[in-house]
Amino acid sequence: MNEEILKVVSVSKFYPIYSSFLKIKISDKRILNNISFSLQKNISLGILGASGVGKSTLAKIIAKVEKPDSGEIFIEGKNIKEYSRKEFATNVQLLFQNPYSMINPKLQIEFLLKERIKQYFILNNKDFDNQSIYSKIEEFLYTAKLSKNVLKMYSYQLSGGQRQRVALLLVLSLYPKIIILDEPLSALDISLQAQMLNFFIELKEKFNFSYIFITHDKNVAEYFCDKILVLHEDGGYEML
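-> structure tokens emitted (240 positions)
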């Protein structure tokens, strides 16, 4: 039996509703209602649901971008509240819908990858030099089927598929235990979506990470994910 890596216990989240006229709070809207589930190592979980049901909110809570109003989250048995920011970065990484948000448009891809790989070595107390850094860069480029030409490029010079792969490499460079993919196909043409799904599957097999895949497309979730968590508009959920 696979070892449990993530445990979500009774997580709830409310958002305030304000009067449009008086600009005062009149009630709370329940987005997530006592959500509980677990995820094992090397398993991919799809979080499925219509727009506005709290898929991205749940992803951000797991990634410590937002706080729940109630409930607890554990990574490998340790409450995420107890992790330092740097320590947590090597456990969970979130890939947003728009890869532009992860790629500084003023910096070349080479610099961005170098800095992330340096961070990996530092966080794991490993010695490194330029040769070890570039060895990692070459390994990642090969894995992503990207040429060295992209290293001298800026984000605006990349195609949609290249940009998504570079953003994913920035996430992978810290070797996190869990990668959260928040609607990662929404910014891509239909012709590229199948390629990226297959690429995600290859990465899962190569690096043995656990994935959380946010989507509104049931067919995509069934194709990519081992387990599916369905969120409902009333804040409830079910596991398929």
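The chain has a mean pLDDT of 89.
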